[in-house]
Amino acid sequence: MAIEDRRDAPGDETMSPPSVNALVVSDDLAIPRGEFVTRATRSSGAGGQHVNKTASRVELLWNVGNSSVLSEDQRSLLRERLASRLSGDGSIRVVASETRSQHRNRERAEARLAELIRGALTIRKKRKPTRRPRSADEARLASKKLHSKKKRERKRDVPD
User: Fold this and answer.
1) Is the domain 17-121 a CATH 3.30.160.20 member?
2) DSSP assignment of the chain, as one string?
3) Spans of the chain below 50 pLDDT
4) Residue-wise pLDDT tens digits, 112-143
5) What DSSP element (H or E) covers 73?
6) How distant is the alpha carbon of residue 46 from its chain centre?
7) What residues does each domain of the chain span?
């Protein structure tokens, strides 16, 4: 019995999972890979002669302003929270050169970009200020009184 791979069947291009053609950031956000500019350059570091011959370092650029999948709220949130990482034209640049494989470096750069975007888009809970317990205030005041009493008693013991 032969196993059929449905992804290669003609006319089934719509059947491919979204992660093949898009970088899935969260359940409701997937960035099409066509929006990325990928550049492969020579990497530094270990690898011997291999390093001098292959372009394994991957640089991934994504323009926040020109993205078709972001809402205006998401776009402004990304611009605000990632302001220090955005270039002049509004692009985020992620570089990966840890491995000797260009393919693995591309995967790492995409994972890093997804994590960066996911972190910037999460809505942070507002801190609810807590009250000090009454016993803590009383203990602090009692300690101050004790310290004050100790100092006062030392003053009286000093002969003139």
Assistant:
1) yes
2) -PPP-GGGSTT-GGGS-HHHHEEEEETTEEEEGGGEEEEEE---SS-THHHHH---EEEEEEESTT-SS--HHHHHHHHHHTTTTB-TTSEEEEEE-SSS-HHHHHHHHHHHHHHHHHHHHSPPPPP-PPPPPHHHHHHHHHHHHHHHHHHHHHHHHS--
3) 1-17
4) 988 998 888 888 889 998 999 999 999 999 99
5) helix 72-81
6) 27
7) 17-121
